[in-house]
Amino acid sequence: MRPHFKWLAPGMNLKRWLLLFALGVLLFSLGLAIVFNYQYIGMLENAIFLWVYRLTGQYLSTGMILVGMGIVTAGVVTMAYATRKLILSIISVLLPEGSNGLINLIYEKRRLNRGPSVVVLGGGTGLSVLLRGIKKATDNITAIVTVGDDGGSSGRIRSDLGMIPPGDLRRCLVALADTEPMMEKLFEHRFGGNGGLAGHNFGNLFIAAMNEVQGDVELALQASSKVLAVRGQVLPATTEAIRLSATMCDGSVIEGESNIPLCGKCIDHVGILPEDVLPVPSAVAAIREADACILGPGSLYTSVLPNLLVRGIADELRRTKAVKIYICNVMTQPGETDGYSASRHVKAILDHVGPGVIDYVVVNAQTVAPVLRDRYATQGAVPVEADIEAIEALGVRAVKANIINETDLVRHDPERLSHTIMDMVVKLGGKSERVRLLDYYLQEEEGRQR
C-alpha cells in the first residue's frame, strides 16, 4: 500500500476525525454567516448568478451547481493542504524521517494493536525465538513462562532471595522489547570476574530488584516491561516456587530442572512440587480470551510441560475456543528426548495432561545441512523425524513447514515460524475482528511481495 493511502487503511482511527474536522468547518462557516447577517450570503449568491449570466447569457441551475461544487472542492483542498502543512511542521521536529516515517509508525502501531490475541506457553531460548517473530504481527501477546529453573544466575537468585527464577522471564521481556539495542544488550549482560556478582545476569538482578521495590513479581514485570517498551505482557505460570521432579524409566526419581538432563536416563514422566500450585489469574484470563494458544518451542520436559502441570492451565486450554498449536523441536535434546520423533513429543504431552490441549502440531520439513547434522551427532542430537501419520493417529493434525534458520546452530527462524503460525491463525482461528484484520494485512503484504 502506498504511504498516502495508508491513512485510509482499516483500523487507523483517522477517517472519522477527518470527517469530524470537515463538519466543524461547515458549522464554523454557518455560524459566521449568521453572525455577519445571512443576507450577505444571499448577496454573494446573486453575484454568482450574475457572473454565470454574463458568461452564458442565461441563468443556469446546472452552472450554479458546478460553481458550488467548485467552491466545496476548493474548501476541501485548502483544509487538506493546511492540515498537511501543520502536521509536517510538527513532525519535522519530532521525526527525522518526515511524514512517511510518521504514517508508517502510526500504520504499524494501529495494525499491531488490532492484531490477534496470542498466548505462548513455554520457556528457555525457544520461546524467546518465537516471540521475536510474533511481535511483528501483533501487540496482543501474552507469554506464560515456566518458573522451574534452578541453575545458574536464576537459581542463585531463587535461593538467595526466595523469589521465582527470573531468567526465562528476562529472555521473554528482551524478545518482546521495542527499545534501543544498547538496552537489550545491557539486560543480557553477564558479569565476569570472581566476586559475588560473577555469573549473574544484569537483567535477572534488575527484575529481582524491581520485585523487592514493587513487592510483587507481576508488578515487577509490568514495571520492567515499561522500561523495555515491551509489546504484550510476560507472566509467570505461577508466582509460587516450584521444583521439577522426573521419574525415570528405571523407577529412580531426579529432582531439579538442571539435574534432569544430566542423569543420562530415559524419562518416564515429570511432575512439579508442590503439585497444587495455583496459576496466575491474568494468565488464565489470557487463555480464555485468546485467538491462538501456542506451546513451545522449547525443551519438552523442562520448559513446555511444567506450565501445563500448573493446576488449571491444561483445563483452560481444553475449554478455550482458540486454535491450539504445538511447535515441535527441530532437533532431539540429549538427556530429555533422545530418539524422539515428532509423534513421541506429542504423545508425551497427551500422556501427562490428557487430550484437548493440542489441535495442530507444526513440524519442520526442511533438511538439515549434513555438516550441522554431523556436528549435532557428536553431542547425541539428531533431527526430529516428522512422522505425520503417527501424529494424526493421536488425533492431532500435522502441518509441515520450512521453519529453520541454519547458522552455527539449527534453530527455528523467527520470521518463518511467525508467518506459519499467523497463516494458521487466519485459516483456523475463527473470524473475530482481530483475525479478519490480520487476514487483510497478510493479503496486503503478499500483494506487495508480488
UniProtKB/TrEMBL annotation:
The chain crosses the membrane at residues 57-79, 86-107. It is found in: Cytoplasm. One of its GO terms (biological process) is regulation of cell shape. SUPFAM superfamilies: CofD-like. Belongs to the gluconeogenesis factor family. Required for morphogenesis under gluconeogenic growth conditions. This is Putative gluconeogenesis factor. It comes from Anaerosporomusa subterranea.
